[in-house]
Design a protein that fits this description.
single chain, alpha/beta, Rossmann fold, 2 domains, 6-stranded mixed beta sheet, 10 helices, elongated
Length: 335
């Protein structure tokens, strides 16, 4: 036997004061009755079996409450086996962690906004596996594909610009790492969400996207940043910005053209990051969930226990019915 809500067993402690109250009530009722009329007169007015009947009624009320308390613990016995199949899509999010993601044209900065986007995505996900890749001048798998969204959040919180020592923005390398991370030869159920400002410094992004398409991977890009450009904070000087060798402030701009080409090359789509989660809804719910074929991600055989709380409710109702029948008045014996 098992119980679905064993914590409700603590309610059984409430039966102790209930028993005390019932015993006190029976005794008090008897005292008041004797006070109202003398003992000889009481034997003529009251059915001789009335006291025993009241005691029996009290017992049945107590049993009814006991059975109801046991019912809320959801007792279970007997079981059957059930095959469960979970279908979904493998989604990998590749996040740019290069220094350009520290630009503050989007508050608080591009990287923090992107991490919040991914957190919102985890809230939306329903039965799909997710993986995380961090990239700058190189890339690596931060979180392998998993159905454990809580674990993915832990890996997400550890991402920052110091995670990868090789600086730059190698989008092509990130795409190749993601393709390998899917670990399946099936040319379906694969989606890569690329979140970056699009400043590809290797020129290999488009060729990598075409190779990803041959593997059945659809790439969805989210551009984060502004077209006007923004200076990059310099951590070595408080309030200062990074400068090039000529002493000019370095501006980081959103390269939408590159991101659009990457998405179109694989049959995906591009959106610019906006306040709220509209961009993620567009990609995940309107694109990935509706247009990418699902496959079986997980299959297991589970033991399903049978709920038996209804028997205890029936027993409680039976006790209350008997108590109601005992409560009916009986004719007094002839004098």
């Amino acid at each position: 036997m098992r119980f679905g809500e064993p914590t409700y067993f603590h309610l059984l402690w409430s039966l102790i004061p209930l028993i005390i109250f019932m015993l006190w009530g029976m005794k008090k009722k008897q005292q008041l009755t004797i006070k109202f009329c003398s003992t000889p007169l009481l034997s003529r007015l009251v059915n001789p079996g009335l006291k025993e009947r009241h005691r029996t009624q009290t017992i049945f009320i107590f049993l009814a409450i006991l059975f109801l308390l046991l019912a809320v613990t959801r007792p279970r016995w007997g079981y059957h086996w059930e095959d469960l199949h979970q279908r979904g899509v493998d989604v990998i999010v590749a996040l740019d962690v290069s220094n350009s993601m520290l630009a503050e044209d989007i508050k608080p900065n591009r990287l923090e906004r992107a991490k919040r986007k991914i957190s919102d995505l985890l809230n939306m996900m329903d039965g799909d596996r997710i993986g995380l890749i961090a990239f700058a001048g190189t890339s690596f798998v931060q979180c392998p594909l998993t159905l454990d969204y809580s674990a993915a959040r832990i890996f997400l919180s550890a991402i920052d610009t110091e995670l990868i020592p090789v600086q730059g923005t190698a989008i092509g390398n990130a795409i190749n790492t993601a393709v390998k991370a899917f670990r399946t030869q099936d040319k379906k159920s694969k989606a890569l969400i690329l979140i970056t400002d699009g400043e590809d410094q290797t020129g290999k992004a488009l060729s990598a996207a075409k190779a990803a398409k041959d593997k059945g991977v659809k790439i969805y890009t989210i551009g984060i940043g502004g077209e006007m450009g923004a200076p990059l904070p310099n951590p070595s000087t408080a309030g200062g910005f990074r400068k090039n060798q000529q002493g000019e402030v370095i501006l980081s701009k959103l390269d939408e053209t590159t991101l659009q080409k990457i998405a179109l090359a694989t049959g995906g789509s591009y959106v610019r990051s906006v306040t709220g989660d509209i961009d993620l809804k567009t990609i995940y719910r309107d694109q990935i969930k509706k247009h990418i074929e699902k496959r079986e991600l997980k299959s297991e055989r589970r033991k399903i226990w049978q709920e038996r709380f209804q028997w205890f409710i029936f027993a409680a109702l039976l006790c209350l019915t008997i108590e109601a029948c005992l409560a009916e008045k009986k004719p007094l014996p002839d004098p």
